[in-house]
Design a protein that fits this description.
The structure holds 2 protein chains of 2 kinds.
Chain A: E1 3-7, E2 10-11, E3 14-15, H1 17-27, E4 31-38, H2 47-52, E5 57-62, H3 64-68, H4 72-85, E6 89-93, H5 96-109, E7 114-120, E8 126-130, E9 135-141, E10 147-150, E11 165-168, E12 181-187, E13 201-205, H6 216-225, E14 228-231, H7 233-237, E15 258-262, H8 268-271, E16 279-284, E17 297-300, H9 303-316
Parallel strand pairs in A: 1-4, 1-6, 4-5, 5-11, 6-10, 7-10, 13-14, 13-15, 15-16, 16-17
Antiparallel strand pairs in A: 2-3, 7-8, 8-9
Helix pairs in contact in A: 4-5, 6-9
Chain B: E1 2-6, E2 9-11, E3 33-35, H1 37-53, E4 56-62, H2 67-77, E5 81-85, H3 95-109, E6 113-117, H4 128-136, E7 139-150, E8 153-159, E9 163-170, E10 173-177, H5 189-195, E11 200-203, H6 205-208, H7 216-219, E12 222-229, E13 237-240, H8 245-255
Parallel strand pairs in B: 1-4, 1-6, 4-5, 5-11, 6-10, 7-10
Antiparallel strand pairs in B: 2-3, 7-8, 8-9
Classes of the chains: A alpha/beta, B alpha/beta.
Family (chain B): Belongs to the ETF beta-subunit/FixA family.
Organism (chain B): Catellatospora coxensis
Subunit structure (chain B): Heterodimer of an alpha and a beta subunit.
Chain lengths: ~325, ~260
């Protein structure tokens, strides 16, 4: 069986969930081979977890230069690997950097690319969700191999233990790969909460939350549920919550098991980022708010009463 | 500093958008076609750089005839001129093909800096800036929330999942921007009148030296097989809070095994 390359995303020595989802998907397409792109020492702490989800091989393309420059070195290392192993497909996370790597790889290999894929069949037919979740598109790469970016939370990762061999890959970079220099990486506090695009539960606040200070009731409910916190554009534009947490057309797209929209009217701008969530719950004082049209459960009421009461009730039931 | 801003006309994301039944392309005829929202931030950033450092700003668009409206709208914000790549053979072009065409047009303009939106609201692919950088050999500083220019040296703050990265490069470069970078100006009446007289050069594939079989349906490296409307979500249960709305909410979460 041909190898299916899965580009690993990790943070602080931990494999990100989207990678486990892609390994799970890769098993249905061929032999999953994980590709770690990073500075020396990146792969070692990830190998066990990658094996747990079925990686039969781990390619470690490690170089300090990968870390020092933006995107281009990763695409170059990946292109070299694709040329040497001729995989059945290449799966990359549909994150900002993942899509950027895929774009460069497409040009290097003169290969078609599909982004935001939620399913990929063995014959290469990809399913994409377009136009804010309103349209389902079946598409295919017709030139080259299936090169796709897979949207986080598109499938449930399931373990299937394998004992991967680790193969070091030489990284030969050109000067054109080193034009953009990363001089600093700054982590902005998000506390212990899960990452927005990977979270199983997201609690978001909107204009109705009314102030930055009042977002604490959103955070309280989120923390009780082990959820990530999101915000509508109205809330981020008003300065209630940082832009990095915006869910919507111009922000993050999330697809969690449970999405709780608090004080969010449900404008198309917002729906674009969340309407493929499995279960949607809304709290809004306006009974006509469009968010109720897609909510599986809605409470018409004052969020300042309803949300703290819900938090209190969750505590009581523990 | 010579700046090129990439502008894409897209169907308004605030209204219903569709793919055509016959050829699976974006239905532009029934849509309200507007400038991709993120591109307005790119135009604004280019104008601010021009105000600070001088030079010229040129809008570059690839699209059908009706994209002219978006070009005039873009020019009304302040750019000096525009290039419209217009050719019947472009119908059906995918991202890879688009990058060939735009790279050829950019090469001809030979700018110091290309600025684009971080993504378009229709495809949301985020692939174009790096595809262009790859073809042109430019540095790519993408996903910027802040851009500073000192001589030929560029520094951006790139938004990431964890926070941000500071990335530097020398020109020529392509920078893509998020809507956190600035607040785009509204076109003034004077700007709208002036836009009507600004030069818009129309370029065909032949003008750019791109072979027709490299783009359009013939050159596409991907194909859409079919599309369908996702079943609309139906409204579920809605209760009015009469003092125990929070408890009702937790009851629901509990019934769905979330609590």
């Amino acid at each position: 069986m041909a190898e299916v390359l899965v580009v690993v995303e990790s943070s602080g020595g931990t494999v990100k969930k989207v990678t486990l989802e892609m390994l799970t998907l890769a098993r249905s397409l061929g032999e999953p081979a994980a590709v770690v792109l990073g500075p020396p020492g990146t792969a070692a702490p990830l190998v066990d977890k990658l094996g747990e989800y079925g990686a039969t091989k781990v390619y470690a393309a490690e170089s300090a230069e990968i870390d020092e420059h933006l995107v281009a070195p990763k695409a170059t290392a990946l292109a070299q690997l694709v040329k040497s192993v001729s995989p059945a497909a290449v799966l990359i996370g549909s994150t900002q950097e993942g899509k950027e790597i895929a774009g460069r790889l497409a040009v290097k290999l003169d290969n078609g690319v599909l982004t935001d894929v939620v399913e990929l069949a063995a014959d290469g037919t990809a399913t994409q969700v377009a136009f804010a979740g309103s349209t389902i598109v079946k598409s295919k790469v017709t030139k080259g191999l299936p090169l796709v970016t897979v949207r986080p939370n598109s499938l449930t990762p399931s373990p299937a233990a394998a004992a991967p061999s680790v193969e070091q890959v030489e990284v030969a970079l050109a000067d054109s790969d080193k034009l953009a220099v990363v001089t600093k990486r700054v982590a902005e506090a998000k506390g212990a909460r899960p990452e927005l695009t990977e979270a199983s539960i997201v609690v978001s606040g909107g204009r109705g939350v009314a102030s930055a200070e009042n977002f604490k009731i959103i955070e309280e409910l989120a923390d009780l549920l082990g959820a990530a916190v999101g915000a509508s554009r109205a809330a981020t534009d008003s300065g209630f919550y940082p832009h990095a947490f915006q869910v919507g057309q111009t922000g993050k797209t999330v697809s969690p098991q449970l999405y709780i929209a608090v004080g969010i009217s449900g404008a198309i701008q917002h729906r674009a980022g969340m309407q493929t969530s499995k279960t949607i719950v809304a709290v809004n004082k306006d009974t006509e708010a469009p968010i109720f049209e897609l909510a599986d459960f809605g409470v018409v009421g004052d969020l300042n009463q309803v949300v703290p009461q819900a938090s209190e009730e969750i505590r009581k039931r523990r | 500093m010579k700046i090129v801003v990439l502008v894409k006309q897209v169907p308004d994301s605030g209204a219903e958008r569709n793919l055509r039944a016959d050829d699976n392309t974006v239905d532009r005829a029934s849509a309200n076609n507007v400038i991709n929202e993120m591109d307005e931030y790119a135009i604004e950033e280019a104008l601010r750089l021009q105000e600070a450092h001088g030079g010229e700003v040129t809008v570059l668009t690839m699209g059908p005839d009706r994209a002219t409206e978006s070009i005039r709208k873009a020019l009304s914000m302040g750019p000096d001129a525009a290039v419209h790549v217009l050719d019947d053979a472009l119908a059906g072009t995918d991202a890879l093909g688009t990058s060939k065409v735009l790279a050829a047009a950019i090469s001809e303009l030979a700018p110091d800096l290309v600025i684009s939106g971080a993504e378009s609201t229709d495809a949301r692919g985020q692939v174009m800036p790096h595809m262009l950088a790859e073809r042109l050999g430019y540095a790519a500083l993408t996903g910027a929330r802040k851009l500073t220019v000192e001589g030929s040296q560029l520094t951006v703050e790139r938004q990431t999942e964890e926070g941000y990265e500071v990335v530097t490069a020398a020109t020529p470069a392509i920078v893509s921007v998020w809507d956190t970078i600035n607040e785009p100006r509204y076109p003034s009446f004077k700007g709208i009148m002036a836009a009507k007289k600004k030069p818009v050069a129309t370029k065909s594939l032949a003008d750019l030296g791109v072979a027709a079989d490299q783009v359009g349906w013939a050159g596409a490296a991907t194909t859409v097989l079919s599309h369908s409307k996702r079943p609309a979500r139906s409204a579920g249960q809605k209760v009015a809070d009469s003092g125990d709305g929070g408890v009702a909410l937790v009851d629901f979460l509990s019934s769905e095994k979330f609590v």
